[in-house]
Amino acid sequence: MSFQYQPLLEDEIRLLTIEPIRVSSGQSDFPEIVVTLENVRLAPLATQHPDERFKGYGHTWPELTNCYDTTVLFKNGKDPFPVRQKSSTTIEDESIKNDATLPWRYPWGDFIALSYVWGPQTPRRFITVNGTKQFGVTPNLYDALIQLRRTQRIRQGFKVWIDAICINQDDLAERSKQVSRMCETYQSAWQVVTWIGPEADNSSLAMTALQWLADQSRRPEENPLEGVYQKGFSIDARPLLIVPVTYRSPFKKSIYKALFKFFCREYWRRMWIIQEMANGRSDMPIMCGDRCMAFDELYRAAVVINNDQARFGRDILDTGWSRLAPKYYYVCAIDRLDLDQDTKWSSERLWKLQVALMQIQRNQKDSPADWQALVQVLLLARESNVTEEKDRVYGILGLKAVVDRVPIVPDYNIPLATSFSTFTSKFLATGDLSILRLVSRTAGPTLPPPERRLEAIPTVLRHRYVAPIVYLILDSVTDSQEPAPVGTPCIHNLPSWAVCWTCKPAPTIHLRGTYRADQDMGAPLPVYVSSDLSITVKGIILDTITSLGTSHPDETGERYPSNILSTHSIYGDLEATRAALWRTIVANTTFQRYGQAT
């Protein structure tokens, strides 16, 4: 018998209670999970006074206090900067005991909201929901439920909101409505809990390294890793010879690889985490396997790596890439080429992502959010992974930088092109034309690097400084390849002014600052969208474009205006135009800076 959802009332959401572990007589690779699903109202709060204490009033997650052994990080087994750690047992006991006599925030209790990635749909795992034993979930969600059941807050009685279970995914109307409420849901939760995934790829070692880096961030030095690396051999005999300085790392090589794998987890590629983490607290728990750390601690660790990316960051990338690319082979927008999964990772998509997520979370409290905060969100959403393409715009409607400008309601029944056009038109209706910077319809060619693998060269040449030189020589004698496209030509039949969030844009530079010709002196420009999908902007005509400059055909689409042939020059004939050109170059002055040039 399939599970039947009870309809939600106007102000209701569903929450599940994870039942304690049941005693089983047999052994099973997949322990039984039993949950109870119920409809609840988010208002009113049972605790109305802001100073009134409630269960979990300190928002502490007891598992965050677990101690860790830092000696496993170093080759010599010694931590150069040990930090005194607190005993976890006492803190865990006190945080729960202090709540025993306190009331819940709501009449029905309290809840946490889970942030996770669905992951592969198969093989399906089955849990029991309200007595129905055939409720299918993804393997990653099953693992999350197993781990959550062990935590003290769940055992204390906190309920959980999980989108895959608490929203009827087969009911598009309910799904649209609940997606529009997700910001409220995550903000109303006692705590947002992040599930990165089960233990894999030495993730426990990565979590230990991240916690150590976070602890080092509290050192007074500008670069907390100063003194950790040992300076090696170098020569500076310019202009004859330069041997760059090298540094010897005290860390085990497995540390860097574990960190690379951690930052490459599928969770960090998921689009929905932008909104979920933005509406959480800075101390929200990050769970990976049976290890846990606070988000602000992860952020501290990411900042340390970012500030020392020439050494620590480089070592993460060097040990993570299975392909050693030539150090001096530069290709425009190489991360957008469909060559190999390895080419898609850069520092911006590894540890810098955690830094960006913390900035977005802080921007939630700013009013109003500026263009830089908005474009940061929009670009992350465009580059992230989604199951439903409409979620590239629906999944960020709970962010302040977006909701202040785009008042739309998710609707999964409309075509994709309509949802993208509506998003852009609502933005333009505010009188702000900045979003037009993100419009892209074309793709340009670039020459991909040759297929080079480390195993293709002799063992004696497989050195980080020798291999790139060998590759450079091989490149010089290799026949040129067919150009590969950079970006994706848009196929969604959008108006020319609408931003497509699905197709990869051309590798252009995004101007992040405010760009206004009127310096905000006047009222917002009125923008009108007509029934024929054209837009009209009201403004002041300063000049008229008579012709366009030359452009590369691969950088423009079919709708790009052709050059207007004009026989008239404002300067007169050809000689007068040439004279205007050279006078412009010398600013129409002599080398003595007075008098007109002749």
Automatic annotation (TrEMBL):
Coiled coil: none annotated. InterPro entries: HET (IPR010730), HetReg/Transcr_Mod (IPR052895). This is Heterokaryon incompatibility. Residues 111-276 form the Heterokaryon incompatibility domain.
